[in-house]
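User: My advisor asked me to double-check a structure prediction for Lipoprotein before group meeting. I don't want to rely on an old file, so could you generate it fresh from this sequence?
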Amino acid sequence: MNDNPVWKTILSIAVCLFAVIRLAITCSNNSKRSSYSDTSYQNVNSLIQHYRNENVQNDDLSNDLFYESYDSISKLNDAEKAIFRVVKVKNDTLLPIDLTSKINIESKSFVQKNHDDSLQLAMKLPDNTSIFIHTYSSNDGLTDNLKALKKKKNIENIKVKVDDPDSKFVSYTYQYGGKKYNGCALLAKEAGQFTSLEFENNKLSKEDLQIKAITFVSLLAK
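Assistant: Sure, here is a fresh prediction for Lipoprotein from the sequence you gave:
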């Protein structure tokens, strides 16, 4: 990682967006919260069975786990967590993401590190927010890379909030397990290295999720 990591670019987007999103929320009515009940545990069981039936390691299947609910992941036993390389954070923890940056992960969150060729880190927060950090070499456009990452989810309603040559902030939606998910992502590219930091939740409003994303990124430890 060089002296000017892509995280500095992402952090600069976050600082600029924070006040704008705050203002938008203040001017709008309070968003309605959708009710939430855990109906995806069977999906997790199916995922585990499929994973075990594979003759070779399949990171694509493992990478799907954090699209399931927090409650479903909580029901996995230790052996099943080991299959998917999942650990539960007992206390607030600073976790390195490169040589110069760390992120704060709140207690009781689940963390997954597959060390595959794209998913650097995944987190599942107690409020059911999924956070994915993807990074890999690519010459494609930023939104094209995001669409490729989310091709299984058929993301829709992609809206670019900030549009710079080497960085973007976008929002999107998708349907999964009979629920609608709001998503937003901070995208950046530096020296051919694409990085995507995605936040997704089926309970938070689009505006609240964006505030959560910007707040999260602004707390990056240098």
